[in-house]
Amino acid sequence: MNGNAFTRLVDYPTALRLVLACAAGSARPMTRVPLAQATGRVAAADILATTCRPPADISAMDGYAFAHDAMAAHAPLPVAGRTVAGDRPEPLAPGHARAILTGARIPAGADCVMAAERMAVVGHAVAPATPLAARGANIRRQGEEFATGTRLVARGQVLDWRHVALLAAQGLRDVPVTRRPRVSVLSNGAELAAGAASACPDSNAPMLASMLGAIGARVSTHAAPTDDVAAQAVHLRAAIGGADIVVTTGGISVGGTDHMLDILRDMGADVVFRGVAIRPGRPLTVLELGGRTIFCLPGNPGAAAICALMFVRPYLRTVMGADTPQPAIPATAGFTADAPAGVTQFIPVTLHHGPDGACCRRVPTVGASDIIAFSRADALLAVTAENPIRAGQVVWGMPLS
To answer: The MoaB/Mog domain covers which part of the protein (predicted)?
Structure first.
C-alpha cells in the first residue's frame, strides 16, 4: 500500500479545529506603524483614551453664546467679542453675548448658544428672532462622547478609516499592531516549466498571493517547475527560509510525481493531518516544521482556492490576532443540493438582493480545476449529508472577498 494514501481522512470541523490550534500556538510579535498606514492591520493591544472628548464644553454651531437668564430678562444683549475654535476664551461679561464658532470653547458665564440665523442683530446687540432656546442648548458637554480611559480600540480589532479618525483625534501618530505574517507560496510541477511540452501558466501562486495579501500577510511566491525530487527539495527549502507559514500547491496527492509529503517528512516535518473529507480539496495536508505551519494544497486551482479560503485564511486571521471570524452572509437558497455521506461539499453561489432579502443561486462548475466559477461567485456554501440545502431555506455563505 502507498504510505501516502488517504487512509484516515479527517472531517472538515476537525481539520479546521486542528488548524486553528496550530495558529493559536503561534507567536504574535508586535510592531508599530504610522497611523495613516494602519488600515487593515490588527491592533496588538487595547488603546485607551488619554483625553476626554470633547475636552471642554464647546459650541455645536456658529452663533452667539450668552447666559440664558440674562437673555430672557434683558434682550437684546450687547455683543462682546468672538470666540473661535482653539481659543482659550475670557469669561463672558455679565449681561453680554459673544459671537462663537462651531467647536469653540464656551466662555465661563455662558450657558446657551443659538444659531446666528435664529438671532436678530440690533446695532451691536443681539436678540432671539425665534423662541429662546432652552438653557444648555447647542452646547456639547465635556466628555459626552467618551471619558479619559475609555477603551477606544480593543486588542484584535481589524483597523479601518474609522479607527484612524478616532485615534488621530487623540493625537496619536502611530499604533501598536501585530506583525504581518510572512507567507511563502510555492507552486510545483514540471508543467510549470516554460519549455515543457504542454506548459501551463501558474495561476495558483498569483491567486494565493492576492488572497492572502488582502488579509494582511506579506507574501512571497516561489516556483519549482520540475518533478525531480531533489530539485523540488531545493526550491522548498528556499521557500521555507524566512517564512512563518508555507503554502505549497500541487504534488500532494498519491501520483507518481507527488513528492511534497515525502520531502517534508525527510526534512523532519510532523503531520497534523493528511487529507480532509471535503470536496473539492481532499488532498489538503497540514504539517509543522521548525515552528512553522505548512499547508500543502492540491494543484487544481479551484480546490486550492477552497482550501485556502476555508483553512489558510482563518489560520492567518488567528495568527494576526483578529478577534472576530469573517462574518457569514445569510440568504435564501434558490436551489437544492445534497452531499455524499461523510463529506463536506463546498458550492460557489451568487447573491442577489431583493425586497425580501438576499437569495443565492448555484454557480455552475466543472470541478476542482474550475477557476472561472469563482470570478462569478460571491460566496461558498458548505453542504453535508446531515445538512443538505433545500430551496427556500435560509443558508449562510462564506464570502469570497
So the answer is: 184-318
CB contact at 8 A, 275 and 260: no
Angle (nearest 5°) at CA 324 between 319 and 330: 130
Residues 250 and 337 in one domain: no
Same domain as 312, residue 188: yes
Cis preceding linkage at 280, omega within 30:
yes
This prediction has a pTM of 0.85
Residue 365 corresponds to which amino acid? T
- pLDDT tens digits along 298-322: 999 999 999 999 999 999 999 998 8
Q: Count how many residues are written for the chain.
A: 401
| 228: pLDDT strictly greater than 50 | yes
How many domains does the structure of the chain reveal? 4
Asked if 95 and 74 count as a contact pair (C-beta separation under 8 A), the reply is yes
Calpha distance 396→399 (Å, rounded): 9
Q: Residue 313: what are its φ and ψ, rounded to 5°?
A: -60, -50
Place of cell 440568504: 331
Q: % helix / strand / coil in the chain, to the nearest 5?
A: 20, 30, 45
What does the pLDDT look like over 26-35, one tens digit per residue? 878 899 999 9
Q: Are 97 and 199 part of one and the same domain?
A: no
